Amino acid sequence: KQTIMYLRYLLIIISFLLLIQTKLFAQEEIPPSEEVWPELNAFYSINSKYRLFAMVSGTKIEKSYYSDGAFGIHLDYFKSYQAKRALGKYDSLKNRLLRVRVGYLYGTTPPSSEDPFKEHTILTETNSSFPLPYQLLITAKNRFDWRILDGDFLPRYRPRLTLERDFKTLYLTFNAYVYGEYFWNFGRNNVNRWRLCGGAEIRVTRNINFEWYYLYQFKNSPDVGKVNAIGLVLKAYFQSAHKKK
């Protein structure tokens, strides 16, 4: 009986210590940054192998005056073979098994921003897709950002693995996906980051798609905190008169 009593006391003490530790940890824990990422994409297919892609995006942090924006122009090259997919006719981003992209990105903040910056980036990227059972598609992206941030050369590598599937109902055609992405900054491990994302891209009209996603960024260091982000992307697709024929 005494042994049982001692065990009960020990469990009570351990529970009390764990409760105190949990409260202290909760007090020290910095809450995630709540953000909204709006974006506008425009795609222009020159022919079956080449496509131009322009984008404008922004970041708005809730309960803060901080915001930034970016503009980019890219050239995509596709291999000639295709994977038959429900959205493939409308979104050539998902109907090719291999895509190579080169592009330029310019990012900046308003002059009155809390944390101003200017960034120039040349990006090089490859996407390789592999069909899986149950109409699933897995895509491995390898992206290098050759960045100049406020005058400093800061390259980074961004591998991403995406699992997706197309769905088609009587009233709706959409693509659902999840992916994980890691940001590896050369020589600056304190700003590396790991993100998980899930979302869906919905076909609105023949040439318009709308994408919505939720992204979570894990804490890595005092320089890289947690992030909860909602992304809203409007995509427009155009093609040359020669390709239409």
Describe the overall structure.
This protein has 2 helices and 12 strands; from the N terminus they run αββββββββββββα. It has an 11-stranded mixed beta barrel. The longest helix is centred in the first third of the chain and has 27 residues. The relative contact order is 0.15. The protein is mostly beta strands and 245 residues long. A hairpin with a 4-residue loop joins strand 8 and strand 9.
Largest sheet: 11 strands, mixed, barrel
Identify low-pLDDT runs. 82-93
What's the number of extended β-strand segments?
12
Shape: globular
N-to-C CA distance? 89 Å
Helix content: 10-25%
Tell me the fraction of residues in β-strands, as a range.
Answer: over 45%
Calculate Rg over CA atoms.
Answer: 23 Å
Number of helices: 2
Return the string of H and E elements.
Answer: HEEEEEEEEEEEEH
Strand order of the biggest β-sheet? 1-2-3-4-5-6-8-9-10-11-12
Kindly report the average pLDDT value.
81
Q: How does the helix and strand content classify structurally? A: mainly beta
Helix and strand topology:
Elements: H1 2-28, E1 33-45, E2 50-61, E3 67-78, E4 98-108, E5 118-132, E6 136-149, E7 152-153, E8 156-168, E9 173-185, E10 193-203, E11 208-217, E12 227-239, H2 241-244
Parallel strand pairs: 1-12
Antiparallel strand pairs: 1-2, 2-3, 3-4, 4-5, 5-6, 6-7, 6-8, 8-9, 9-10, 10-11, 11-12
Quick overview of this protein structure:
The chain has helices at residues 2-28, 241-244; strands at 33-45, 50-61, 67-78, 98-108, 118-132, 136-149, 152-153, 156-168, 173-185, 193-203, 208-217, 227-239. The chain is mainly beta and 245 residues long.
